[in-house]
Amino acid sequence: MARRQFYLSNGGLFVLLLCAAVGLLLLPRTLTQEVNFLFAETFQPLIRIGRNFQRDRFAMPGPDDAVVSRDEHNRLWKNYNNLHAQLLKLQEQVEILSQLRSGLPRFYSGLAIAEVTGAAGGLSHELLINKGTADGVRAGCYVMSIGQNSIVGVVRETSEQMACVRLLSDANQCIVIRIRRDGTDLDVGALMFGNGKRGGIVSKIERDKDIRVGDAVYAAARPGLLEVPMIIGEVSEVLPDEEPLLWKIAVQLADDAFTLQTLAVIVPETVGAGGL
Predict the structure, then answer these.
(1) What sign does the dihedral 108-112-117-121 (CA atoms) show?
(2) What are phi and psi of 14, to 5 degrees?
(3) Alpha-carbon span 231 to 148, nearest angstrom
(4) Where are the chain's structural domains?
(5) What sign for the dihedral angle of Cα 267, 272, 274, 276?
(6) Helix intervals (H) in the chain
């Protein structure tokens, strides 16, 4: 015999639930209270989660969370912007250092990025920079350009926070150089003096040395200051010297240091401070 299926309409379901609710309402309070406690104990973990979420979301600030004053807000806002500006500057210096080191023939652990703050004045070819002994910079340190990775000067004197850089073009500047030519064994050592304009002069080189226009001119290596030769410019003119059997050579520098706003000081590795 086929089993009868029980079907309950929506209206019948409503009447059934209504009767159940009325029955619960008429039950003694002691019985319904026990049912309430049983429900609370059974579903307490879920109820606690909901209460904690609502409390954390809509909790009113207490005494420790009081809103700061307008003056304090302005002070914090200014400090934030100052720190943000410093961060951007540090990021810029890190990028500059990465570019410099990728172009150097040797990894220098001490490179201090310095901003040019002005010229020393007078007829001298000297610049003031904002790095000094506090950054490991001392007299004799070589200074290089950012764009061409060429030596442009040498630190003459320092203070704690600043330094004076004597450019290679200064008439009182003298630097040991090497003249080389790619693809040959030409390697001539000499002294270069600044010409007081935008270049240098090399004299007292024997005429049997095959020096030509376009030969590269390097700052010679100096232990503790410059570990390998670095480019400073190229030969621009070769003329007979006033003394017989000698050449007088003009050097065109790779960079016009007076147009530069940022320089890099090669800090000796024996000095542990300041370089990045």
Answers:
(1) negative
(2) -65, -45
(3) 9
(4) 14-54, 80-276
(5) positive
(6) 10-26, 29-42, 44-58, 70-103
What is the CB-side half-sphere exposure of residue 258 using CA atoms within 13 A? 12
Of 259, 223, 269, nearest to 148 by C-alpha is 259
- Mean pLDDT of all residues in the chain? 79
* pLDDT given for residue 249 in this prediction: 95
Query: Checking phi first, is residue 146 left (phi over 0); if not, alpha (psi -120 to 50) or beta?
Result: alpha
Tell me if the pTM is above 0.70.
no
For the domain made up of 80-276, the CATH class stated in words is mainly beta
Instruction: Please state, in angstroms and rounded to a whole number, the distance separating the CA atoms of residues 143 and 155.
Output: 7
Task: Give me the count of residues in the chain.
Answer: 276
State the sign of the Cα–Cα–Cα–Cα dihedral 164, 200, 267, 103: positive
pLDDT tens for 169-212 read: 999 999 999 999 988 889 999 999 999 988 999 988 999 999 99
